[in-house]
């Protein structure tokens, strides 16, 4: 029996997920794939400047796992920069920490992942309309419905 993979918590999805060196045809380029959780590790540690411990807690992984994800991400980025490879950010094992909603009357609110699992919102908390839609995440490829629960997760690749 296969074990359920442990999902890394991710608070951010990059809007632009494809990068290529200028002046080189795509057909001649090697592409490096950076997973969503690798991008999150880079964001927390290198962009937000958090300590490793805090970053690991935010992603719900051990320090050693976080260090491994971060190292992998840095090596891939270095390879792409130094050797002129394209980068694509996609895939991985992760769950999103929240979703953002908007109702037809323009109210916006945020729903934590734990709430999404137990009870996805049906009404706007401000005006009670049922005319609501998801603002974030916006990537259609991430939609997964599991056991009647509506939430989004990354997939293995
Ligand atoms: Zn509303």
**Overall number of strands:** 10
Portion in strands? 25-35%
What gross morphology would you assign? Answer: globular
The Cα radius of gyration reads 18 Å
Query: H/E order of the elements?
Result: EEEHHHEEEEHEEE
Could you give a short account of the major beta sheet? Answer: 3 strands, mixed
Going across the biggest sheet, name each strand in turn.
2-4-3
Overall average pLDDT = 84
Bound molecules: zinc ion
Measured as a percent range, the helix fraction is 25-40%
Textual characterization of the structure:
The chain is globular, with a radius of gyration of 18 Å. The longest helix has 21 residues, at 63-83. It has helices at 36-47, 52-59, 63-83, 113-118, and strands at residues 8-10, 18-19, 31-34, 86-89, 94-96, 98-103, 108-112, 132-136, 143-146, 149-152. It starts with 7 loop residues before the first strand and ends in a 5-residue tail after the last strand. A three-stranded mixed sheet has the order 2-4-3. 22% of the residues are buried. With 157 residues, it is of the alpha/beta class. It is 30% helix and 25% strand. Mean pLDDT is 84; it is low at 139-157. A hairpin with a 2-residue loop joins strand 9 (143-146) and strand 10 (149-152). The protein contains four helices and ten strands; from the N terminus they run E-E-E-H-H-H-E-E-E-E-H-E-E-E. The chain binds zinc ion.
């Amino acid at each position: 029996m296969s074990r359920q993979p442990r999902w890394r918590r991710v608070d951010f999805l990059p809007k632009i997920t494809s990068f290529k060196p200028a002046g080189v045809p795509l057909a001649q380029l090697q592409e490096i794939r950076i997973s969503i959780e690798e991008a999150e590790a880079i964001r927390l540690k290198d962009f937000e400047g958090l300590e490793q411990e805090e970053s690991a807690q935010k992603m719900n992984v051990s320090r050693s796992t976080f260090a491994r994800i971060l190292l992998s991400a840095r090596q891939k980025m270095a390879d792409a920069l130094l050797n002129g490879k394209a980068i694509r950010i996609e895939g991985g094992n992760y769950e999103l920490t929240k979703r953002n909603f908007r109702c037809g009357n323009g109210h916006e609110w945020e729903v934590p992942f734990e709430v999404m699992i137990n009870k996805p919102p049906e009404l706007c908390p401000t005006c009670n309309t049922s005319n609501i839609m998801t603002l974030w995440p916006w990537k259609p490829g991430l939609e997964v419905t599991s056991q009647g629960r509506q939430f989004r997760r990354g997939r293995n690749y």
